[in-house]
Structure formats: structure tokens, C-alpha cells
Amino acid sequence: MLKKNQLALILLTLVLMLTVYYITSPFDNKNNNNNNDDDDITDTTGRLEELAAMRQTIREERSLAVMALDAIIADSTKSIAEKTAALDEKRYINSLTEKELLLELEVISMGYRDAFVHASSTGVEVTVIAEEHSLSKANEIVVKTMLQFDQPYDNVVLKFSTAEQVMGEVG
Q1: Whose CA, among 33, 110, 111, 171, lies 20 to 30 Å from 141?
Q2: Could you tell me if 117 and 104 are in contact, meaning their C-beta atoms sit under 8 angstroms apart?
Q3: Residues 35-75: pLDDT tens digits?
């Protein structure tokens, strides 16, 4: 029995170390060359670095929460109810992150340059990067959001912004 606990602890430690490594050193494909060709490549990808920074901030907050929940799950002094609650919360956080990513990809597949989705216990905020927008497309995005997150209409906030507006807000 002791060997199984030791193995579980070793594997948990390994997963946590890999998570911390991945968060602290993101894999950037950027070269340190400061020529104009690199800037053109960045602009043609469509995704905004400002939104990527916002995504990274949320990802870091959630990974810290998951690590705290993992500590509760691994603690032998905690009760089964506490461990079950921590495991349920961890599943909820992972589910929320997956749903955000799927909705972002759905919005981008509708022809928009980029999208940012942030879901919390109070509701869902969706920011769509577009030069033009229509009421019918906005309704379609809100309906997709409501279906994806099981949220009532008044808990969904949709905001259309241009790339320049987002860069100005973050910068």
C-alpha cells in the first residue's frame, strides 16, 4: 500500500513540475531578429497578442487554483468529502477552460479575426475582434454562448471591438 502512495505522490509531483515549467516558459516561435518580415508574419496570423496575454493570465490563475486543489486531494489529513469537493472543482475548472477554447474557435470559424471568452461563476464575457458586426451575428454568438455554458441570457456579455481598440485598452 505504501508503494502505491509513493508512486502516486511521485507522479503528482512530476505533473506539477511539468505544469510549472510549461507556464513559466511558454514556447514562443519568435526569432530575435528585428526585421519587418517577422512583423508581417505576426499580422497575418490574425490572433492578437493582447488577447493571448489575457488568456495566459487566466490560465495562470486557474493553474494555481488547480495546484491548490491537487494539494487538497493529495493531503492524507483531508476528509473524503473535502477531496471529492476539490476534485469536482478541478473538473469544473477544466471544463470551463475547454468550453472557452471551443467557443473562441467557433467564433473565429464564423469569419472573425480573433475572440476572447472568459467564463466565471457570474457569467460569460465574449470579446470579438471585428471591423464590422451585425445584430444577427451577435445573436448567433450569444445563442452559442448560452448553449455552450448553460447560462441565461442576462449572464452573457458580448462586445465587438476592433484590433486597435483592444491594443489601446491593454497597452
Answers
A1: 171
A2: yes
A3: 444 443 334 346 788 888 888 999 999 999 999 999 999 98
Helix runs in 46-149, H state only? 49-74, 80-109, 135-149
Residue whose C-alpha cell is 445573436 = 139
Using CA atoms, how far apart are residues 128 and 115, in angstroms rounded to an integer?
4
Q: Which three cell numbers stand for residue 83?
A: 477531496
Please give the single-letter amino acid code of residue 22: Y
What phi, psi does 161 have (nearest 5°)?
A: -140, 155
Q: CB under 8 Å to 169, separation ≥6 — which residues?
A: 50, 161
Q: What domains are defined for the chain?
A: 50-170 (1.10.287.4300)
What dihedral do alpha carbons 136, 130, 27, 62 form, nearest 10°? -50
- ∠ CA 39-45-50, nearest 5°, is 75
Q: pLDDT digits over 107-136, tens only?
A: 989 888 889 999 888 889 999 988 888 899
